[in-house]
Amino acid sequence: MTDSTIQLGSIKKKNIGIATLLAFAMIPMSGFATDIYLPSLPGMTAALGISSSQAQLTLSLFLISYGVSQLFVGGLLDSYGRYRISLAAILVFFISCITIANTHNIYVIYAMRIIHGITIAAMVVAKRAFFVDLFSGEKLKHYLSLFTIIWSTGPIVAPFIGGYLEVSFGWESNFYFLAAIAGVLFLGEVIFSGETLQHAVPFHLGNITSIYTSMLRTGSFVLGILMLGLGYSMIMVYNMSGPFIIEHHFNLSPVVTGYCSLLLGLAWMVGGFTGKALINRPFTRKMNTNVVLQLLFATLLLLTLQRLNTLPVILFFAFLIHVGAGFTYNNYFTYCLAKFPKNAGIAGGLTGGLCYVIVSFLSYLITYVLPAKDGGNLGVSYLLLILASIAVMYRVNVLNKKNASH
């Protein structure tokens, strides 16, 4: 029944190269959807007459819907194909961006941001599965390890562009820009891409539930997702706090916010490249070293701020901490996605979904308890997340030793 609804493996061989580039181009869309309007958060609060927490909620709603959607979209993609679902998602995302840019109703924006999360989830999970469908072995491992590096182009480029868009045209222009990207991707997909699913899995809720249950009973897989959530929460806590610290506490412009986010986006990319370069080194040793260094940098940040409370100090230590976060994410993302190759859509959806659910709750909770008023609160936020990472890493080490003994 499922086989008759999709044309399995319909992508043309001559288009695989361009389709692969389009797939890589879609990976950073989640970062673009969150980061491009970071410099506009203070401006949005003024233009819409809302509080900073209401503006931050637009990020949290996106993260929650993006995360929860990934929990379910993987099963649909494994049953009904990647192509048509992702194509429809791009079109709906385009329409929702135009809607946000033409409303000043915060509740409409909330609704559209939830739709953003759902559509971006379909797009990104479909493209993760795209690589597992077409590649295998070392080539697949190579591509999977590139994911976090490619994804990091969003946090690097998006706020840099967003800062200039905010100053020149206002916060609405960020969403027109996102719509333009979606339009280009839609046309590229229509012309060059196609279906990559070779063997459709009939959509039986019971079977899919049993697959989810099996994955969630794999302790190392769940702990890997938790580490992903803790690592990315360090980035998101800065994303939600940084614009207010820079524009309110230090009285600087949104363009400066964009440059700062660009710098810290580069940190994430450096962490990803480092993770890829050290991919064959002993896993436990390199991850333990990484988290100890993060603890040292967070402690030094808090101590230095007692005597020298400046933006360069915050950025210097945040850069080092974000390198560590990128390193963590690269290693654990590759690990989690390669663990269940026969159910790539579900594994990718579960990994990304649970990660973003963890990130949405952790980042909003931390910024609510420790408001974005200065670098001190940001430093304490980093420290809490790093201490939690150490606790999880300890459990990972215990579990690995148990598995090795068996």
Automatic annotation (TrEMBL):
An annotated GO cellular component of this protein is:
plasma membrane
Looking at the record, the residues that make up the Major facilitator superfamily (MFS) profile domain are 19-403
Annotated TM spans:
16-37, 57-77, 84-101, 107-131, 143-163, 175-194, 215-235, 255-279, 291-308, 314-332, 344-366, 378-396
Give the primary localization class: membrane
**Keyword presence, Ubl conjugation:** no
Q: Name one GO molecular function term.
A: sodium:proton antiporter activity
What is the membrane topology listed in the Swiss-Prot or TrEMBL record? Multi-pass membrane protein
Location comes to: Membrane
Q: Which terms are listed as keywords in the entry?
A: Membrane, Transmembrane, Transmembrane helix, Transport
Please give a single GO biological process term from the UniProt record: xenobiotic detoxification by transmembrane export across the plasma membrane
For this protein, the record's SUPFAM superfamilies field holds:
MFS general substrate transporter
Q: Which PROSITE patterns match?
A: MFS (PS50850)
The yes or no answer to whether the keyword Membrane is present is yes
Name of this protein? Putative MFS family arabinose efflux permease
